[in-house]
Design brief:
The protein has 307 residues and is of the alpha+beta class. It has helices at 20-31, 49-59, 118-123, 148-161, 166-169, 271-275; strands at residues 7-12, 36-41, 66-71, 97-102, 107-112, 127-132, 171-173, 187-188, 194-201, 207-209, 226-230, 235-240, 252-256, 262-265, 282-287.
């Protein structure tokens, strides 16, 4: 008998237009009525494993102990085979389904083995036991091709919440054989710059970079310090700030965001639009000496209404 859980935190690329998410939650409710399902988001772009992995990693410090169910680019196929380690294919278009127990036994992360889960598991303390979900007695029978979120992941999540041991829902595999995460690392340039990547553009257009404050610690952290921000299309100077509201009109800021990463921001405007960047685009950060305004610095102009 395994540990019982009372929470499933659910993230997916399934959207909310049709019944898909509702059916998954209905299956959980039927099999494990004591469980509460928390919807983290279902608006990950279809098949965007990178975005799903990053969103899941951002969530992991805040989800309660229990099961984390992540479904992005899970595919549709003939069945969920042993795929990993055992060398058995998972069916055409199918990603092997896996369940990974996080170190310390505080929960289990379930989803396709396509790189989606690795960063979140690392955030939770690393992997303990891992299984490939190849035990059909814990799945729903499908009238046609297997729909992993409905026929496999929902039922396995519910069974685990009911206390079924991890080893009963799949074949044990070495967690090191699972696909690694997809989060890129920054690189140091020969000129003292840092070559970064836009990890995420939030709803208001702030651009989170794959750079933490330690990566540019030698440049200092004082508010007001200037950093050159160069993209493919433009070069601007950003001011180190604690919050966007301290920026002047049209000024670019660089701050440590709520997740501890550096983000390029504007006040009440989209930094992504201003710099013409999207998730995955490259950004080069270069420190500027005091008094160096750098190229592309906007000059403030005061307008006075004629009398």
């Amino acid at each position: 008998m395994g540990r019982r859980y009372d929470t499933i935190s659910f993230l997916s690329d399934l959207g909310v237009v049709d019944e898909h998410v509702g059916v998954v939650k209905a299956i959980v409710r039927d099999l494990a009525p004591h469980v509460q399902v928390i919807d983290l988001t279902h608006q990950i772009g279809a098949g965007d494993v990178r975005a799903g992995s990053l969103a899941l990693a951002r969530c992991m410090s805040y989800v309660p102990s229990g099961v984390v169910l992540a479904v992005v680019d899970a595919g549709v196929g003939a069945g969920v085979g042993a795929g990993v380690g055992a060398g058995v294919g998972a069916g055409v278009g199918q990603r092997p389904g896996v369940a990974i127990e996080v170190a310390g036994g505080e929960g289990v992360v379930i989803g396709p083995d396509n790189g989606l889960l690795a960063s979140a598991v690392a955030m939770a303390g690393g992997a303990g036991r891992a299984v490939v979900l190849d035990k059909p007695e814990h799945h729903l029978a499908s009238p046609g091709a297997v729909l992993p979120s409905r026929d496999v992941f929902a039922t396995v999540a519910a069974h685990l919440c009911n206390g079924v041991d991890l080893a009963e829902v799949g074949t044990l595999v070495d967690a090191d054989t699972l696909l690694p995460g997809v989060i890129p690392l920054p690189r140091d340039g020969d000129d003292g710059s840092v070559h970064a990547e836009v990890l995420w553009v939030d709803r208001v257009g702030n651009c989170q970079l794959n750079v933490g404050p330690d990566d540019i610690a030698p440049w200092g952290s004082a508010e007001g310090a200037r950093v050159q921000v160069a993209t493919t299309d433009t070069t601007r100077v950003a001011e180190r700030v604690a919050r966007p509201g301290t920026l002047g009109a049209g000024a670019v800021g660089l701050l440590v965001d709520a997740y501890g990463m550096l983000s390029v921001v504007l006040d009440h405007r989209s930094a992504a639009d201003e710099l013409s960047v999207a998730a995955g685009d490259l950004v080069r950060l270069t420190p500027l000496a005091e008094g160096d305004r750098g190229p592309g610095t906007p000059v403030p102009v005061a307008l006075r209404t004629p009398r």
